[in-house]
Amino acid sequence: MFSGAHMILYSQDADADRAFIKDVLGFDHVDAGHGWLIFKLPPAEVAVHPTDDEPKHEFYLMCDDLDAVLATMAERGVEVTRPVTEARWGRLTAVRLPSGSELPLYQPLHPVAHSL
């Protein structure tokens, strides 16, 4: 029924964040015209969590080895903005995008659905 999912990150400096995703993260992309890059993402999954607060949406890049990813990011001069937190279901942190916003990173410790 569906052929994919399209996520949008809103940015105060979209050109710099696009360059970061292209050059630092190394994501393949297409140019939709006039330098408007659309990136191929790794396999994805979606979860629905309950909340009593205002509903919101979150975007995380998942990885198998968070420590290795952070070492690579450090070599590329990327700022880690949150200490790694450990939970029974996963390990979380975030890195700084050029626009100043954060990009959360997540190493799941639970079964994943993205490769089904």
UniProtKB/TrEMBL annotation:
Pfam families per the UniProt record, alphabetical: Glyoxalase
Record InterPro entries: Glyas_Bleomycin-R_OHBP_Dase (IPR029068), Glyas_Fos-R_dOase_dom (IPR004360), VOC_core (IPR037523)
Taxonomic superkingdom: Bacteria
Listed Gene3D superfamilies: 2,3-Dihydroxybiphenyl 1,2-Dioxygenase, domain 1
Domain VOC: 3-108
Coiled-coil positions: none
Full protein name: VOC family protein
Native source organism of the sequence: Streptomyces monticola
Lineage, top ranks: Bacteria, Bacillati, Actinomycetota, Actinomycetes, Kitasatosporales
